[in-house]
Write a structure and sequence with these properties.
alpha+beta; Heat Shock Protein 90; three-stranded antiparallel β-sheet; 7 helices; about 40% helix; elongated; DUF3298 domain-containing protein; PdaC/RsiV-like_sf; DUF3298
Length: about 300
């Protein structure tokens, strides 16, 4: 009896221990509060990290967009945003404006080569700046003048002579090329001259036809005025006005000066060869009635 009671007490104690153990294990592994908290915190931590990364990227983009780099900035297409775009636009505008207002300047290009069978060693008048298209026309025309002089020779060479240059007016570019044609076989030389006149705004080449309302009437007027002025030239009394013809070839070489139309007569055409190239300046006022409207203002500028 006493032994049976001890067995019953032991059994009850074992059951109590089992129950306590079950509750202990459940409190550790299946605590609802612990499980809920763990699942809630993981997304929270991920969201925080993502937000921090987004903030850092936004800061970097803003910094790149503000600073700008030659290789591209913070824009989605690799271009700079914000102040860098404004700076680029300003630079372009300034450059364009500067190019449009840059004045023409005279220069020379050294030509040292064969032009056909003629060897040229010449400083060729050219221009820089201004309207690039107009400068291109003028420079090309001066090259044509040099080529024409070379083509007029059979062998030999072309050399510099004093007096070449460019007059740059407000509306006109006027070029003069003086050279010497050297015959190496005869050891002689003769002077040559060539001219170019270009409208500095339109880029049009100005010819005698451009000057006069009627070319034939204009040429006759040039002959008349040349006869008056010839004796006061370097040829003096040797100037022979009877040799003047009312043709474009006679007055082919001329420059536009402020004072008037500066004519150059080839050697031997209006005076003995010893007089060289004879030149005179016919005042614009003496040609005014025969000239086209507005042209005098251009060529005399």
């Amino acid at each position: 009896m006493f032994s049976g009671g001890r067995i019953l007490v032991a059994a009850v104690g074992a059951i109590v221990l089992i129950v306590v153990a079950v509750y202990a294990v459940r409190s550790v592994w299946w605590d609802p509060a612990s499980k809920t908290t763990s699942l809630t915190q993981l997304p929270s931590a991920t969201t925080t990290a993502s937000a921090a990364a987004t903030t850092a990227m936004s800061t970097a983009d803003a910094s790149a967009g503000t600073q700008g780099t030659p290789g591209g900035g913070g824009g989605p297409d690799g271009t700079d945003n914000g102040s860098s775009t404004t700076a680029s636009t300003t630079t372009t505008t300034t450059t364009t404006s500067s190019a449009a207002t840059t004045p023409f300047t005279a220069k020379t290009d050294k030509v040292n080569t064969f032009l056909g069978t003629t060897y040229a060693n010449v400083s060729l008048p050219q221009v820089d700046g201004g309207d690039s298209a107009v400068a291109g026309v003028f420079n090309d025309e001066m090259h044509k003048v040099l080529q024409s002089q070379a083509d007029s020779l059979t062998g030999g060479r072309l050399e510099d002579r004093p007096g070449s240059g460019v007059r740059i007016g407000q509306r006109v570019l006027s070029g003069l090329l003086r050279t010497a044609a050297v015959d190496t076989t005869k050891a002689t030389s003769r002077p040559l001259v060539g001219t170019v006149v270009v409208d500095a705004q339109s880029g049009s080449v100005i010819t005698l036809s451009s000057l006069f309302n009627d070319l034939n009437s204009g040429l006759k007027l040039l002959v008349q005025e040349s006869k008056k002025l010839g004796p006061s030239s370097t040829a003096g009394a040797n100037f022979d006005g009877t040799k003047l013809q009312a043709t474009e070839q006679t007055f082919d070489h001329w420059t536009a000066e402020t004072a008037g139309l500066h004519v150059f007569f080839d050697q031997g055409t209006v005076a003995p060869s010893s007089s060289g190239i004879v030149d005179i300046t016919i005042p614009w006022s003496d040609l005014g009635d025969a000239m086209k409207s507005g042209v005098q203002q251009i060529v005399s500028s």
